[in-house]
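::Encoded backbone::
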Amino acid sequence: MQYLLSEGEYKELQNVIKQRSKAYNEELQALCTLVAKYVPVKVEWKTGPDVPWGCILLPEGQGRTMYCDRCPAQKMCPHPYKDYSK
């Protein structure tokens, strides 16, 4: 089935899609940050094995790490400025 939209209806539909997409990304970002803060990752050089990796978006002192390299949520995380080590 095919529908024809007026220009006004099309713009309104685009606005609805943008608003939902923004809300979805905000919720997904919050969940990814939560995962990074609490899910243990095996890292030998940190305080010990099985410690959470942390997130670059967390305030200083709340398990924040410098890079996203081994974050358990890095593939799903929608943050546009992920930080990777060189």
